[in-house]
Write a structure and sequence with these properties.
160 residues; mainly alpha
């Protein structure tokens, strides 16, 4: 609820009102909005810039949903035409925001890939040393590399 309060104040207010007045409906709505918000909250823990892009995108989706509903309920053709134009503009804006977010995610993935390639190249350079260390580890009777990694010792199976 803290994340919703900070990033989606109107949604938070609706949820709080429901919690007090209709707890059953509150739980249903919380499950419904919690699904899309959970991934944003997880990303927010490691990358606030990316999470903000996701928040912006979700806010636009909320506006689009509202405009769509209002368009279907419009009483006049003039009002419907105005709402359709706004809806089309917002959908285009959401598309652009989504593309920006995907580009940012790709940049992050490239950085991670570059780091893994660097580590792999480093391990290739250190192959003889790592093999010697593994040989010595096995001779000592340490046959569980996973247990050694957890205890802080390193063998062949490291992520370095």
């Amino acid at each position: 609820m803290h994340f919703a309060r900070a990033n989606f104040p109107q949604l938070h207010q609706r949820l709080e009102k429901l919690r007090q007045v209709k707890p059953g409906e509150f739980n249903r709505m919380l499950r419904r909005v919690g699904g899309p918000l959970r991934p944003i909250m997880e990303v927010n823990r490691r990358d606030q810039r990316l999470a903000q892009k996701m928040v912006d995108e979700y806010r636009l989706q909320m506006v689009i949903t509202s405009l769509s509903r209002r368009c279907r309920q419009a009483k006049t053709e003039q009002e419907r035409a105005r709402l359709r134009a706004e809806l089309q503009a917002r959908i285009g804006e959401r598309f652009d925001r989504h593309q920006e977010r995907i580009r940012m995610e790709i940049q992050h993935l490239r950085a991670r890939l570059d780091e893994q390639e660097r580590r792999l190249a480093d391990r290739e350079k250190r192959k003889e040393e790592l093999l010697r260390q593994e040989y010595e580890r096995v001779l000592r009777g340490a046959s569980n590399p996973a247990a050694e990694r957890q205890s802080g010792k390193r063998g062949l199976e490291t992520n370095d």
